[in-house]
Predict the structure.
Amino acid sequence: MASLDINQVSKIYAGGNKAVNSVDITIQDGEFIVLVGPSGCGKSTLLRMVAGLEEISEGEVKIGGRTVNTIEPAERDIAMVFQNYALYPHMTVRQNLEYGLKNRNTPRADIDARVAEAARMLEIDQYLDRKPRALSGGQRQRVAMGRAIVRQPAAFLFDEPLSNLDAKLRVSMRGEIKRLQRRLGTTSIYVTHDQLEAMTLADRLVVLNGGRIEQIGAPLEVYHQPASTFVASFIGSPAMNLVQGELHGNRLAVGPSLLTLGGHAPTSGEVTVGLRAEDLRVASSDEEGLQFRLDYVEELGSQRLVHGHVGDQALTASMALDVALADEMKLAIDPRRLHFFARDTGKRIHAPGTAPASQPSVMEVA
Amino acid sequence: MQKNKLSDHLVLILGSLFLMVPVVVAFMTSTHAAADIHSNGLSLTWGGNFAETYEKVLTREGGFTGQVTGSRMVMNSFILGIGFALGKIVLSMLAAYAIVYFRMRFATLAFWVIFTTLLLPLEVRIMPSYQVMSDLSLLNTYTGLIVPLLASATGTFYFRQFFKSVPDELLEAARIDGAGPIKFFIDVLVPLSRTMIAAIFIIMFVYGWNQYLWPMLMTTDERFFTLMRGIKQILQVWIGSQIPDYNEAFALAVLAMLPPVVIVVIFQSWFIKGLTESDK
Ligand SMILES: Nc1ncnc2c1ncn2[C@@H]1O[C@H](COP(=O)(O)OP(=O)(O)O)[C@@H](O)[C@H]1O
Ligand SMILES: [Mg+2]
């Protein structure tokens, strides 16, 4: 178990393509960090630089205080779980689990004990003498995790380990990974493009975009205070509504509609306004609100998603089933639930007095 | 539908006959006495001399020096076939491993150079190869018989394609598991290539078994004669007005056919698996 420091790390591929750009993450001992972002944003590249499978172009990676830039993967004291499991097809499950330990000249009795323990923990005892070919996807992924666990490494690295599983299995395996990590207390970095997986697993999320960090923070912090329009639209389902608006004093204009803010607006002029679908509700007749034209409704069972327009801007609201819908509606929102982003940079504009709580604390070196 | 089936069967039957009849004729003829064959030509009937002829071919010492028996030639052919196949597999696997897994400068160039040698069969370089072997005094040795034939563009090509299809994650997992290049090769790649190795072994064994021109040049000592070489030898022996031992030549030809057939029949499922699917 160890802390993990990623200092100003960049990856420049041949041809000058900068896949990872000056990334800084400080990971505490035992923390579960999830790297999340759209496909191609450099998540795997970053993880593989930590693992030692990819050379580090710039910057420094430290595991447990030791700089590992030039150290072989096997010597870094990490274990990795791959998306396609990467089990050795010609070896039985037991041999797969043992292989790394044997190469380290671990004593036989120790190997047997660790394999038995991991097999019991992952409930793969009865498959130990099967080949991976004879296992289902979920069972293979358990074996892959077993192979990581028996090594008792300083850190687990996961690269989209659940992407090849069907939706139902993914949910149950997600829970299991979380439970195992809690129980073992091993520092973990987990890569996924699935924001829901990221939200549910992470102690802290690292949202990546084009090789850069957009935001680091606890899942709810990222959800409630997205640092940019990118994070706002990536985290949460349905995605946060982003509409163009204009601030004057304490008045916000969105298309033809006007809203009055409680206190003073954090800025004035043109802004991008973020509204979570679940924060919108039907306004009472004497309330001010957004003039909403309904286009269509998606039933989700527990609630419904109402899609429509305010002026010419698309908007989605989440409504309870008993709310009466009409073609023309007025939607209200608690002004404190509005998010403001700069039109040009997409960065969050913080209300005066509410300093960005999360950012400095996670950036500081532990 | 029925009609189609009938014509299908006709084609298949004709094809099988086309391939089988010469073999049957050779076998049947080999059971006749040499004099019969000399006067009556090829035969499709059972001659009754089966036991005598085959026993004689396998055990009687023949040739000019009287030192070489049929079984000795069978053994030589096996040594050539197996040595040839194993040597080719080892060499081409190592070459493919280097080309696919190591970041060498000119790796692609090296591959294409190896690949273009496909266009240069043994016959093209037979004189220089002979010269080299002769200078190294390796004529009339198993080494001289086998080693110059070992470089294999075909084998290297097949193994390269196979290694390329092995997922990179397997190498990465092995690296994290602490396996170096040699361990990865022996513990992971070789076992994964089993079916491929079997397929190439069969092809190369048959190819080596059937070598004719090279053993002909390399071996003048009868103790190193292979079956292919021996058949020719029998027909060459014209002593006085004696009739050539046609029956023995046919018997030897039939014997020469057997091992490759047996190997292919036994390994055919592996063979097909190796060339079409892979267990990854
Ligand atoms: N070997 C490589 N050579 C050049 N570019 C690469 C290589 N591997 C990945 N990339 C590029 O780096 C970027 C990040 O890739 P990756 O880390 O795999 O993304 P992610 O895992 O987030 O989907 C992509 O734009 C990809 O095209
Ligand atoms: Mg990836």
